[in-house]
């Protein structure tokens, strides 16, 4: 009986959501059967209404557009043979329809958290409720309809404003789940976040294992079962863990959610907004934005052909997959781990939009050029930072090179790629400091580039205005090289990045291509902001682990470095720093400011910076000089 109850049960929606449901349903459109609205409120004086609710879905498991979902054939069905599930939805829409720009910007929420407000609306809150929460009002001022869709089953329902998808379990299936973690301390208790959403069958299951290794590919040691206990996804080890070593916990879970339904939820809410005459919010065009985990979601979404709905109609007109590198997501498989952060093994062929032959597997296909994804292709921006090229095996360069890493490839007309030069995965706070890395975190800001790219994408999908050309490092001109060819300078106290290991696929190393650097260690190609092109430091996409957290030859995941220049020639010579000092480069504050402004004016001309954003960018440049000058006098 226990197993039968398990097979039929659903992952629960948050109790506070269920308790608050107000039975306000929209007329069904295809796979969205209804929307239960829990609240509707105006957002300050913005002219926007915020609608919070739960979307209910029913999809045909036999439809060709859904059959690709792993284990959908093993999900329970209703009397009509459809698979039912539900998830949180939040919409911000202009109250006056005439103020809408006709574009729905649909957020691939990251681990249940909303991202587009803070990414594009400087100073905005992720979940706005007031005028102040809208930041500088960038998105609402332009009239976007903002849509947030839950797609992930393993989100912590107790987190504030977390958005979660409730999906059925696959029936009559079994297996193991595996989660890696690298402790930064020696505490005896560690929570394996990759295994959130999976409860072990029993605390003493003999199939449960815990292993340890040094680095990503070290020799694996099995830890004696008597030394640890497992409760949920938390493991307690007698004597404590060793900081900097990599552990893997494996166990047999109670059940396997049909996690790929998250792609159907994202598809069907967008189609509902675009086409249902009774939708709460309506927009004829839709752009999807996903960052990091959510960018990998979009690469997965496209690869499996979810940009066509069950009626065969195009869903998204534009897709912006940000800081995903050449990786996809652990989503459409049994035992999926969408929060999976394990390094060096997430880059997944096919990397490029067009078909290629994989030298490792022999498979010939492309991210977009395969039988599922070939039709209804959107316009696409891929944007990546230095981290996605250098650290963690995301292999960003492979999205625009041959799979063997020997030559550049031409991107299709509907695709652009932008390398955000010198930046880390998410900019650190400025002024920066040393945290988990050996060097200060990298604060180089790229948000203003993303704002310009969003405007360019909007004009592309609405008006057919050709966007800026791709800005990427290339093998042909020597700005993209094998890691062993990079000319990073010898700087005292800084490890050479040539020791970083390559990503692996099926146990074999992938080509490790990185942007070439100048004599300062700053990268030569891509979208070079004034902060990077007129630098006060060396900015990198890697940062080795600090001694305080162990594993000093390994990288801090997703972190870059800021390695400041000496302020004077005398200081530089005393440190034997090969890089020119600030004093030698610029001579004066005015000369520095003038050089930076020239870079920003060129970016505006190339539509990679909005003219309205120049004052804020220059304010940041002035702060750079002020901080450097202050440190020089301390």
Characteristics of this structure?
634 residues; alpha+beta; ten-stranded mixed beta sheet; four-stranded antiparallel beta sheet; 25 strands; 19% helix; globular; disordered N terminus
Describe this structure in words.
The protein is α+β, with helices and mostly antiparallel strands and 634 residues long. Helix content is 19%, strand content 20%. It is globular and about 80 Å long. Among the domains are: 2-168 and 258-340, no CATH class; 177-251, no CATH class. Helix 12 runs antiparallel to helix 13 (614-633).
Classify the beta-strand content into a percent band: 15-25%
Global shape: globular
The pLDDT mean sits at 92
Low-confidence stretches: 1-27
Distance between the termini: 71 Å
Helical percentage: 10-25%
Q: What is the helix tally?
A: 13
**What is the CA-based Rg, rounded?**
25 Å
Could you give the count of β-strands? Answer: 25
Global structural class: alpha+beta
Major pleated sheet: 10 strands, mixed
What's the quick description here?
With 634 residues, this protein is an alpha+beta fold. The protein is built from 13 helices and 25 strands.
Would you spell out the secondary-structure blueprint of this structure?
Blueprint: H1 2-8, H2 15-20, E1 32-42, E2 48-59, E3 83-94, E4 103-108, H3 116-120, H4 138-141, E5 145-149, E6 165-166, E7 177-181, E8 189-191, E9 209-213, E10 221-222, E11 228-231, E12 234-237, E13 246-251, H5 261-275, E14 285-291, H6 293-303, E15 318-322, E16 356-357, E17 364-365, E18 379-385, H7 386-390, E19 415-420, H8 447-463, E20 480-482, E21 504-505, E22 508-509, E23 513-515, H9 530-533, E24 537-540, E25 561-564, H10 569-575, H11 582-586, H12 589-605, H13 614-633
Parallel strand pairs: 4-5, 4-14, 14-15, 15-18, 18-19
Antiparallel strand pairs: 1-2, 2-3, 3-5, 3-6, 7-13, 8-12, 9-10, 9-13, 11-12, 16-17, 20-23, 21-22, 24-25
